[in-house]
Design brief:
The structure is a single chain. It is built from seven helices and 22 strands. The protein has helices at residues 108-112, 122-125, 128-137, 168-171, 236-239, 278-293, 319-331; strands at 6-8, 34-36, 44-46, 52-62, 67-75, 85-88, 93-96, 101-104, 116-117, 165-167, 175-177, 183-193, 198-205, 213-217, 221-223, 230-232, 244-248, 257-260, 301-306, 309-316, 338-340, 343-344.
């Protein structure tokens, strides 16, 4: 498979299905020249005895939950199983940046016993039961709810329902728009962290000749009914506030380069503001609902969401209550989007 997409050079921003080895968050200091992405088949899978296992062929992605569900590995020819694709949970792989491979703690004979999938029947391959069985084969606990399970109300990272699983190669170049059928552009690249099983952002290239690229949090997107395009559940006005990659074309012997605006806003110090977009309102409602369901005493806690960022203010009786409310907000949003300013103990007021 040849994935001819571009890479925004940096510590973490990648095209198609290739991840860089460093695990820092991207900043404007680390983004560099616009370079071609390596052929994905270059990424090899070996075991700890340095025996060949296979090659990364693609990724199965649960976009709604921001998860890399599985790494689709083409078995090495030395195993005598040509064209055999095995779905490996990403946390079963160990990055080896020195040798530029991923390690799997398994012998070739054991890997040959792993159940194969048929990419021609991808809808069946993405089913919850099949994915859960693959996780258990590799000794991994699924992050999603299995049959008969219910979501925990106390776990810091409660399990969620498995979203629609699509191959990363199919997501590339998909059109992106809003529910009003306004098209924003097409998927240009994705920010991936294979060892942690996370997809963070989707970079969308706007139409036209200005090469404007916008960064959309993966969990702000969903598939349309036909699953041939992505929908950002917001208006074009709200989309305009999303962070962007500002591209500068090569000239005078210099490489092209790009600067990224941060999706994370500054520490909120102004009056608590609630955004009016559907996404902001829905996020605040969900957090409040889940706090009430947890039976935490939160009468003096205020919540505001604007442009996707959540601010928690007020006071609670204990550190445990503060942590629990913060964990609920994170579960309904993302860690880096929650600014927990809650204090412990009733504030002392002057007479």
């Amino acid at each position: 498979m040849k994935l001819k997409h571009k890479l925004l050079a940096g510590a973490f921003v990648v095209g198609a299905t290739l991840t860089t080895w460093a695990q820092q968050d991207p900043t404007h200091d680390r983004l560099g020249a616009d370079k071609p992405v390596r052929d994905i088949s270059y990424i090899k899978i070996k075991n700890f005895q340095d025996e060949d296992i296979g090659t990364v062929a693609d990724l199965g992605i649960d976009l709604i939950n921001g998860r890399i569900v599985e790494v689709l590995v083409a078995s090495d020819k030395s195993l005598g199983a040509d064209d055999r694709i095995v779905a490996v949970p990403p946390l079963a792989l160990f990055p080896d940046p020195v040798n530029e491979v991923y390690r799997l703690n398994m012998s070739p004979d054991e890997f040959k016993e792993a159940p194969a999938i048929d990419l021609a029947k991808w809808t069946d391959a993405g089913s919850r039961d099949r994915v859960a069985a693959a996780y258990h084969f590799f000794g991994q606990e699924p992050y999603f709810l299995q049959e008969g399970e219910t979501a925990s109300k106390v776990a810091k990272r409660p399990k969620v329902a498995l979203g629609y699983v699509e191959r990363s190669s199919k997501i590339m170049d998909m059109p992106v728009g809003n529910p009003q059928n306004v098209k924003f552009g097409n998927v240009y690249s994705m920010s991936l962290d294979i060892p942690r099983g996370r997809i963070l952002n989707v970079v969308v290239l706007a139409p036209g000749n200005f090469h404007t690229k916008s960064v959309i949090p993966a969990m702000a997107l969903s598939f349309n009914a036909a699953r041939d395009g992505l929908v950002l559940d917001d208006t074009k006005v709200a989309y305009a506030n999303e962070p962007r990659y500002v591209m500068t074309e090569p000239e005078f012997g210099n490489d092209a380069y790009s600067n990224e605006e941060s999706y994370e806003g500054p520490h909120t110090s102004v009056a608590l503001v609630q955004g009016r977009s559907y996404r902001d309102v829905d996020r605040t409602v969900r957090i409040n609902r889940d706090i009430r369901a947890s039976k935490i005493y939160s009468r003096h806690v205020q919540i505001g969401t604007i442009d996707g960022r959540v601010t928690l203010r007020g006071w609670v009786n204990s550190d445990a209550d503060k942590g629990s409310i913060g964990a609920i907000a994170i579960a309904d949003s993302r860690l880096e989007l929650v600014d927990n300013q809650i204090t412990v103990g009733k504030p002392i007021t002057a007479n």
